[in-house]
Description:
By secondary structure, the chain is an alpha+beta fold. The longest helix is centred in the C-terminal third of the chain and has 54 residues.
Amino acid sequence: MLHFSKLKQAILWLIVLAGLLFALPNVLPEKIRGGADVQGSMPSFLPYKTVNLGLDLQGGTHLLYEVDVQSVKQAKLEAAADDARQFLRSEKPIIPATGFKINGDTVTFRLARPAQMEEALKRIKPINTVDQALSLTGGSKPPFVIESDPLSGKITLTLTKEALDKEIRDAVARSIEVIRQRIDELGTREPTIQRKGDDRIIVEVPGKSDPERIKELVGQTAKMTFHMLDTSVTIGEARAGRIPPGAKLVEGSNPSEPYVLIRRRPLVDGEDLVDSKPSFNQSGQPAVSFRFNGKGARRFGKATAENVGRRFAIVLDDRVISAPVINSPILGGSGIIEGGFTTESANDLSILLRAGALPAKLTVLDQGTVGAELGADSIRAGAIALIIGFVAVVIFMVLVYGMLGLISDAALIANVLLMMGALSALQATLTLPGIAGIILTIGMAVDANVLIFGRVREEYRNGKTPMNAIETGYAKARSTILDANITTLIAAVLLLQFGSGPVKGFGVTLAIGIITSVFTAFVFSRLLTSYWLFKTKPKTLPI
């Protein structure tokens, strides 16, 4: 085990050299190392990436959001009312219904002909199967309780508590994914986005010191839909309360047209968007281009072909941002949104549309900016602990194991270099618990050498030569070292899989540290030991 071919030696030294090169940018100023957008004095082919620092080390933005339960419930009830209206008109003869109202947890409406009650209940029955039934401990339950009065023709749909709770859980889960996509578009590494309680979300963005922009980007619902304008009544009549059935009065972004009357049911919605990006219109003004998927392109093309000469509205969060005239069918599945954007607002809107709409409105309960000074203090304290721990381990190994202890210390230095190089190369985020993981790994790295040297000492005392004792020690300690580190690696992987924020940061450094420590303690230190043995050929072991 102590004989290494020249090829193996070269590979091992190249691995250590790579760790040094990838770790080096962390101690060099930006003007020397350069960066993605900065030209440094180092050759461009050398690594320039540094370890990303978490919120607790470099500061950033902390936000606490609450999902608007009322908006979740309102959306569910509005969808039920719209579905009921469509189901009643889906077959011949059409069943007319009026007076659709939402009050509390219920949707109520009346049939124009109460005698059609039995057929109406049959048609609206799919409302309870549009969403999958809830699987609860008491069995599967429909989301709505349907009640009817045959005499008056009144039908009441009551949303159950179980269905509302499920909608809230789903809304929080979808919101977390949408928020993550939006923040990732900013280029931020490892933001912390996690559920708190039943309806709250914690968002921590390292390195972003402008909470207002984060709030604007994260908190905007960004639900975009395309609607035809309703011209059956004037805007004045609509504002006076005479809104036709199936229509909706919304605000407009154009000062000359502060309100727009649109058809409630959209032609296409944002779920059919597959791409959006900032661009410029023919006048050179910032705009946002978009592209639909195949289904959206077909629906949009058909709608525009059937409504040439009429206006349609592009609605973002119940506000019309553009209402152009359809001059010709739009069959390519792509288009452009013009709305008096700036370059930054066009970029933000394209990010929002790419990430998708939030399922519910978010309310900011708490916000704050973590200053970098706190991170500097944490880094300083962590560095002091790291240095003290490192020096203590180095001295202990030399005092107890002599020359073999010095070899172990050299492997330990290589281990730290490989860890920092791996963190930099992977662009992992280092948090304060991550520093604790590095310190823990330093202790764990020499554990393997302690096991090896303990076995070597035992074999040497049993009468073996120094070379045989060392060779046997490494061979017999291998399985123990691997077993111990594999079990710890499993725990680190579980932290990576299920943890978030600082917990995940600890898991990252622990997992990387386990891999590098096994390499340096069992392979690299063995290489250094073989150099010492073959060069000095000691008669006794200083152990």
